[in-house]
Specification:
The structure holds three protein chains of three kinds. By secondary structure, chain B is α/β, with parallel strands linked by helices. Chain B is 28% helix and 19% strand. Chain B has a single domain, classed as Rossmann fold (3-Layer(aba) Sandwich), CATH 3.40.50.11310. Chain B starts with a helix and ends with a strand. Chain C is of the alpha+beta class. The longest helix of chain C has 27 residues. In chain C, α3 crosses α4 and α3 crosses α5. The chains are: A alpha/beta, B alpha/beta, C alpha+beta. The structure holds zinc ion.
Chain lengths: 286, 187, 362
């Protein structure tokens, strides 16, 4: 596709995004405004992540794209194809073989290394947005480090339900300063955010980029008497038997039958290749 | 214009800028890490690493301040020809280039506002020495601790106290680069 | 045996092939040409150019054809194309006072220099389906056109001479560019107008209508609505003069709004302004009403809490490409979020039931 520049975006746009990424890394958790461009895919489909990836990729990179943890969900396929065409980068589904991983809604189960970059697609980058719809107000709240509203909301949950009723996009505090939206990952993934890889977050429609350098302090908001609980459903994967992975629930018939399988397809496949089995695979083997 | 003012840009801009940016991003994300950065060449005294930083990050939307000896006609012409960035004062610049002494005092640069801490200057400090010893660094991007030859420590400690406002630094020496964001604790 | 869903790639290819077939429809019916769309669906083309922020009737027509007539989809195609275009410079402001008007009306004066020129309007058509158009071989009677003087003065200038309308001082400032800089609030009027010019017609219409019904009423009269061609010029510093780049057709609306004065401003008329590519009357009138409503602060009026007075609300929700993308994205997979919600609801229910049981036993 020679009609377009390497990685689609023109060089001036990439420079603008690159400057925003660097500021994001220098001020972890702070949402840097950037002049998001109209991409050839709709807002909400990962235009922020795509722009961040486009500004980050080099021809030598190996890209992995996941949506809901899986490489073969339609939007992951579509974004991967976009970069195969426009940046001619190699692609992989193997987590450890990727140098850049673009994700929507999950962090891979396998630990990432220092040489990897994780790019998140973010729909609503402002963690306070659902408490205060006005950007002018939330910007002030971040400036003043005024996060009382968030704590009140979480505490009301506890008073009402006995638990914090947020199960995904669970807010975190970065380096004791900025409250940050981790994107709509399940709270199960939150503890993984203190990692060795560079994490970049792109919100196209909302025109924000933010970032976490490796080993940045990322703490899920909680209370002393109600500590953060990243637990997930107490099941094992029906295919690979993993008990430590985040699971998709699959409805198997119309009589209430269901099973749980790893949401991270690469993790599951790797485990099965290593000979691990789950309830379902054991039965068939027998 | 001298020949060098017209040369020294990227040979193949898109992939070379991408590779350069990855080095720059890596050093910013991992303070203390020293990497090669040599895709561009500007007239003396600007180092290859500083030239590559400017070429990768600057354009007509970013003001550049040339400090001290870096402010020559040849360098100005090179920036004008390859980057098209306006040359501006220290107080309004987005990027500044010069030796540590020439860049002083740091108080003349933008440190951002509490609502927009990103509206701050990035300083490219041309250095004679760049090695992993000297000041001890801790903070985001650093596993336990790192070390970097810094021109001094007090200025960086004062800068870190301003967080989330403050300046971010690149240290360049020949074709090598390291970085020190405002988050890094320096001892 | 459960097999994880595979073959996303294949599914996408099949969907695209099917889409192409549907777009073409029955192949025994002649295919639409770009020229036909450009000439005969001109108002659709205009809307796509206006909200796509790109003046190119042929590309807009192509986008409409490709989008199967879905104008928001066509606008999206144009926007995505537009961002890849290199920027050579900015034109000088267009001079609408030198417009070659094909339509020019004023609701505030019965007659005035330049006259009332109806032009090609639906206004007084009876909305009766014209079955003659369904038959082939339509013949057009070329009407006698109203003679329009070469330049037509702006209506608001007559009021300005008397000092009855707020003077809008010309500014030499370069207006901000929404397509190059992130939206920042508070937004000045230039930025608001720019945002409104590319905002969704339906959204702008709804907002304007709400002001008429009392949510931030501004007492608007259409001082003037004019449609016609203006020339676009650009200064070339190397040449030392401006060159003519060509002509574009625009619709300009200026409303005259009653204003009894405020703490800061004397009683006088004030203005709302709308300028849109092509013949886009509904949009330009809507735009001027919303513009006027958003000016409450600079005119020292009260904020009555009306939606159309709320710049943040209007500017953040008027873009149909942003809105439709985010709205429609909820059809993408959300298994992971949903699963975490499912677990949470099950847990809360279980606990609620457990609490309920001992109470019931009492
Ligand atoms: Zn599994």
């Amino acid at each position: 596709m020679s009609d377009y520049n390497f990685a689609y975006l023109d060089e001036q746009t990439k420079r603008m995004i690159r400057r925003a990424i660097l500021k994001g890394l220098a001020i972890p958790g702070y949402q840097v405004p950037f002049a998001s461009r109209e991409m050839p895919m709709p807002y909400g489909w990962g235009t922020g992540g795509v722009q961040v990836s486009a500004a980050t990729l080099t021809p030598e990179d190996t890209l992995k794209v996941i949506d809901q943890g899986a490489d073969d969900t339609t939007n992951a396929v579509s974004i991967r194809k976009f970069f195969e065409k426009t940046a001619e980068v190699g692609t992989t589904t193997e987590t450890s073989a990727a140098t850049v991983i673009q994700t929507r809604h999950r962090i891979p189960e396998e630990d990432l290394s220092e040489d990897q970059i994780l790019v998140y697609q973010v729909p609503i980058p402002e963690p306070l947005r659902f408490l205060e719809p006005r950007e002018t107000e939330t910007r002030k709240m971040h400036a003043l480090e005024e996060y009382g509203l968030m704590h009140v909301k979480l505490y009301e949950d506890i008073a009402k339900h006995g638990h914090i009723a947020t199960s995904y996009a669970y807010p975190v505090k970065v380096e004791d300063r900025y409250v940050m939206d981790p994107s709509p990952i399940p709270k199960f993934d939150n503890p993984k955010m203190e990692m060795s890889a560079i994490q970049l977050f792109g919100a196209g429609r909302e025109q924000r980029i933010y970032a976490l350098p490796p080993y940045t302090k990322v703490v899920s908001l909680d209370f002393e008497d109600h500590p953060f609980d990243p637990s997930k459903a107490p099941h094992a994967c029906a295919l690979c038997g993993a008990e430590d992975s985040y699971l998709d629930e699959v409805i198997t018939d119309d009589k209430g039958g269901r099973m749980f399988v790893c949401s991270d397809t690469d993790y599951c496949e790797k485990r099965r290749a290593e000979g691990h089995t789950g309830d379902l695979t054991k039965e068939t083997a027998a | 214009m001298e020949a060098l003012e017209l040369t020294g840009g990227f040979f193949d801009p898109a992939p070379e800028a991408a590779r350069a940016f990855r080095q720059i991003m890596t050093v910013m994300a991992k303070p203390g890490t020293i990497l090669d950065l040599d895709q561009a060449e500007a007239p003396a005294p600007v180092s290859k690493a500083a030239a590559t930083l400017l070429l990768t990050l600057c354009d007509p939307d970013t003001g550049i301040y040339l400090a001290g000896d870096a402010d020559t006609d040849a360098v100005r012409n090179w920036i004008n020809f390859h980057i098209g960035a306006p040359l501006v004062s220290a107080a309004t610049c987005d990027f500044a280039v010069g030796t540590w002494e020439a860049l002083a005092p740091l108080s003349q640069f933008k440190i951002g506002t509490s609502e927009y801490p990103d509206r701050s200057a990035s300083l490219i400090v041309e250095s004679d020495v760049l090695e992993n010893q000297g000041a001890v660094l801790q903070g985001p991007g650093i596993k336990d601790r790192a070390a970097l030859s810094l021109p001094e420590t007090a200025a960086f400690q004062a800068n870190q106290m301003l967080f989330p406002l403050g300046l971010d630094f690149y240290f360049t020496q020949g074709s090598r680069v390291a970085a020190l964001p405002r988050t890094t604790e320096v001892r | 045996m459960y097999v994880a869903v595979k073959g996303g790639e294949r599914a996408i290819e099949n969907a695209h092939a099917w889409l192409a077939e549907e777009r073409r429809g029955d192949t025994s019916v002649e295919e639409l040409s770009i020229a036909q769309i450009r000439e005969q669906l001109k108002l659709a083309v205009n809307r796509v150019m206006a909200e796509g922020s790109l003046y190119d009737p042929d590309l807009a027509a192509l986008a409409i054809k490709q989008a199967r007539g879905d104008l928001i989809e066509a606008i999206f195609l144009i926007r995505a194309y537009r961002t890849t275009l290199p920027r050579f410079g900015s034109s000088n402001p267009i001079e609408t006072s030198e417009m070659d008007c094909e339509r020019r009306i004023s609701a505030t004066f019965k007659d005035l220099p330049g006259g009332q020129v109806l032009g090609p309007t639906f206004d007084y058509t009876h909305r009766l389906l014209d079955f003659k158009l369904a038959a082939d071989g339509e013949t057009i009677e070329v009407p006698e056109r109203d003679a329009v003087p070469e330049t037509v003065p702006h209506v608001t200038e007559f009021l300005n001479k008397e000092g009855l309308i707020q003077d809008e001082a010309a500014s030499e400032d370069t207006p901000p560019d929404l397509t190059r800089e992130p939206l920042e609030l508070p937004a000045d009027r230039a930025l608001r107008l720019q945002s409104l010019a590319r905002a969704d017609e339906g959204f702008t219409l709804g907002m304007a209508y709400s002001t008429q019904r009392g949510y931030g009423r501004t007492h608007a009269f259409v001082g003037e609505l004019r449609i016609g061609a203006v020339s676009v010029e650009m200064d070339i510093p190397e040449l030392g003069f401006a060159i003519d780049l060509g002509e574009i057709t625009v619709t300009e609306c200026e409303t005259v709004n009653q204003f009894t004065g405020s703490k800061t401003e004397p009683p006088q008329f004030t203005r709302g302004y709308g300028l849109v590519f092509g013949q886009s009357e509904r949009k330009s009138i809507s735009m001027s009403l919303v513009d006027r409503a958003l000016r409450w602060e600079e005119l020292g009026e009260d904020n009555v809490g009306a939606p159309a007075q709320d710049a943040e609300f209007v500017l953040y929700h008027g873009d149909n490409i942003q809105a439709t993308g985010f709205l429609e994205h909820i059809k993408l997979p959300h298994y992971v979020d949903f699963q975490s919600e499912l677990e949470l609801i099950r847990k809360l229910r279980r606990e609620a039931m457990e609490r309920a049981v001992p109470e019931a036993a009492e």
